[in-house]
Amino acid sequence: MTQRSSGGGQVKNADVPWDEAFDSIAYLDHNYRDLQEEDAEILQIIRDHFGDHFRKQGVGPVSGIDVGAGVNLYPALAMLPWCDEITLFERSSSNVEYLDGQVDSYGENWDKFWTALCRKKAYRSLDVDPREKFRKVVKVEQGDIFELKRYGGRWSVGTMFFVAESMTTSPGEFALGVERFMRCLAPGAPFAAAFMAHSQGYHAGEHFFPACDVGESDVYASLERFARDFKVRPLKSSARVREGYKGMIVAHGWRCNSDADISYN
């Protein structure tokens, strides 16, 4: 199934009524009320990546960003032990409202996700209650992913989960979304990103939202100019959170040290 705008072309990010139509609670209920098999596998990958990075680096507190946070808190939880500031960057007004309501004390459903992270010592060893630290370090910022251009190199660790391929049918916008994410990270910053493979779109409540049909090679191509020592891998899990996609892809690695020779789209 190919999604088309009313004019017969690709559905661009700007065509989508994110503020009026996205049902945040319906999306949360379907995807994150429980810890699903695919997310458990993702949590294992990213907790090991971030945990091993910061154990080896031995650096002090850093700033983190989750681009397109939606109603998903587990990327922020995955960065929590090492950050003194985490920005949840999100476009949809209803998602922003949900995130704002979670900062002071996030919902009990997220305890399952934190427990999964705590299989890594760095999370178990956190010297404060995770809700207390979350309250102190997390802030919500409303904005469009393409606006990240003004924040070149701002953050020292970053995540982007199910965003670039889930906001448009345009391959160009998908690639530009990945670029905006990568360029907002400082040289050498660890990152993790997740993508729906060959998604045909999805519902958030009654409304249907666009997706770009991407596979492992597309994800790799979108990252290779901006990342080093990175891996792109399909999940092993055969579980599916919904119909209309072939699996999930996780990418993780480090922002490359320099891209001065690369033009900025």
TrEMBL record:
A Pfam family: NNMT_PNMT_TEMT
PROSITE patterns referenced in this protein's UniProt entry, alphabetically: SAM_MT_NNMT_PNMT_TEMT (PS51681)
The entry's keywords: Methyltransferase, S-adenosyl-L-methionine, Transferase
InterPro entries the record matches: NNMT_TEMT_trans, SAM-dependent_MTases_sf
Gene Ontology terms, MF aspect: methyltransferase activity
Signal peptide from the UniProt entry: none
Lineage top rank: taxon: Bacteria
One record GO biological process: methylation
Name the record gives this protein: Methyltransferase
Organism whose genome encodes this protein: Streptomyces regalis
